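> example.struct
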């Protein structure tokens, strides 16, 4: 496995999974090019994310375990960080430390008329718990396991025993 890849050789693919019809106006068309696995990275994940005009790649969310960093390669838009929104443009670095609650949540939105392209780098701590403040959902992610739920549907600890 080689430890070098050129950005022009990174294959983009639909991100992160098929978008339901009712959300296509916000998310359809975003792609990701996975780099880390191609160059042998073990403790960090890397990808190039491309977001069409007026779209976003992911819902507003925060991570309990993993820290992320984004570097804007092309275009401009805004980033939601907690309860604030900030303009972003080519050359900007964005830190998104791990933490609980809406104050650690983030989302990159392309508000321009051109594509927004960024490098995303994250730690790869597993298992991971992510919260989605806009919908009240949470996700548990580990190796080959993914569960997305809603806290209001939680079972009692002793149920079924």
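> example.seq
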């Amino acid at each position: 496995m080689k430890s070098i890849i050129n950005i022009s050789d990174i294959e983009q693919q639909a991100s992160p999974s098929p978008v339901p019809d009712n959300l296509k106006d916000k998310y359809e068309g975003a792609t990701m090019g996975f780099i880390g696995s191609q160059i042998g990275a073990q403790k960090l994940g890397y990808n190039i994310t491309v977001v069409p005009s007026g779209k976003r790649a992911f819902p507003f969310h925060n991570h309990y375990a993993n820290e992320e960093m984004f570097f804007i390669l092309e275009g401009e838009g805004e980033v939601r960080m907690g309860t604030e929104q900030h303009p972003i443009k080519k050359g900007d670095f964005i830190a998104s430390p791990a933490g609980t609650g809406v104050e650690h949540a983030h989302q990159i939105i392309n508000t321009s008329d051109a594509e927004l392209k960024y490098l995303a780098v994250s730690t790869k701590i597993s298992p991971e718990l992510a919260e989605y403040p806009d919908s009240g959902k949470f996700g548990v992610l580990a190796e080959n396991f993914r569960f997305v739920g809603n806290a209001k549907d939680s079972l009692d600890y002793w149920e079924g025993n």
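> remarks
The domain at 25-127 is CATH 2.60.120.10 (Jelly Rolls).
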